[in-house]
Amino acid sequence: MQGLKGKNVLITGASTGIGRAIAIRFAKEGANVAINYYSSEAEARETQDLAEAACSEIQGCGVESIVVQADVSQAADVDRMFDRVYSEFGGLDILINNAGIQMEGASHEIEVSQIDKMIATNLRGAYLCARKAIQHFLAKQQPGIIINDSSVHEMIPRPKYVGYTISKSGLEGMTRTLALEYARHGIRVNSIGPGATATPINDWATDPQARQEIADQIPMGRVGQPEEMAAAAAFLASDEAAYITGQTLFIDGGLTLFPSFRTPWT
Ligand code: NAI
CA 194, CA 97: separation in Å to the nearest integer? Predict the structure, then answer.
């Protein structure tokens, strides 16, 4: 993918799942990767090892990588994380807001504190990081790229996950607003919108029967893989997507195509 080699990339929530796959993919493209983690340094180090191994497959690839702890919902943590990235890499070119959580509960029963936590991590955290990255891009008078890891649920309603859908549809508004506000500064802001993807956030990922039941709902008949989400993130961050901003690219096997209309029911 053109334009990623030598770029400095920060990926939040990159110790597992889609974030890990994104770190590995960008390292493979020759980018320097800052791997943010929340709780498990060991998992983040595993991501780092995998990213460095992926890079070494490419001849002449010399990626730098760091792991950095931060809770993205906390402004002081976010400041510390960006300072560390600047001091280690000397700057930042690409921010991937990937960190996210989901909690289930009927909308009239779920604890408000759980709703707050989902919004704080998925939406406030992404905003805090985007704000820091934009300040940096403007101060350096350089182009910059922000990719938000949204979801098909920025578009598809999801009963019992109202906090999650609030946070992801909010991400859509943030993506479009920041894209418009900073387009003239050469800053592109886009989202990836994963469908059902086999990662630790989903209980069904390790249960073959539950996984099949999910797959049966998807037009392409299978769940997605984290590497497929990473490929879309790499594309949107690359020069190949130089004229794309303010968009969500759904990677969902057709889940956003109203699958119940596949066969006529009227
Ligand atoms: P995951 O659970 O493996 O990854 C989420 C990561 O975010 C974890 O590494 C976790 O430690 C980190 N995290 C949680 N709270 C954090 C905080 N306060 N600060 C920093 N990091 C924090 O699950 P997955 O699937 O890789 O999720 C990544 C993103 O993809 C999330 O934003 C999720 O909403 C989104 N997504 C996932 C889908 C799926 O089916 N797996 C579908 C649509 C979107």
Answer: 13
Please give the span between the terminal C-alpha atoms of the chain, in angstroms, as a whole number.
45
Q: Which of 165, 142, 155 lies closest to 90 in space, CA to CA? A: 142
User: Within its chain, how far is the Cα of 224 from the centroid?
Assistant: 15
Whole-Å CA distances, 17 to 101, 143, 171? 12, 28, 20
Q: Per residue in 90-139, pLDDT tens?
A: 999 999 999 999 999 999 999 999 999 999 999 999 999 999 999 999 99
Q: Which atom of ligand 1 is nearest to the CA of 120?
A: 18
Q: Which domains does the chain have, with CATH numbers?
A: 8-255 (3.40.50.720)
Nearest atom, ligand 1, residue 197 CA = 40
Ligand 1 in contact with 35 (CB < 6 A)? no
Per residue in 183-195, pLDDT (tens digit) is: 999 999 999 999 9
Ligand 1 pocket check for 178: Cβ under 6 Å: no
CA of 259 to the centre of ligand 1 (A): 25
The catalytic residues are 164
- Of 46, 69, 199, the residue with max ligand 1 atoms within 8 A of its CB, to mutate for a pocket test, comes to 199
pTM score, two decimals?
0.98
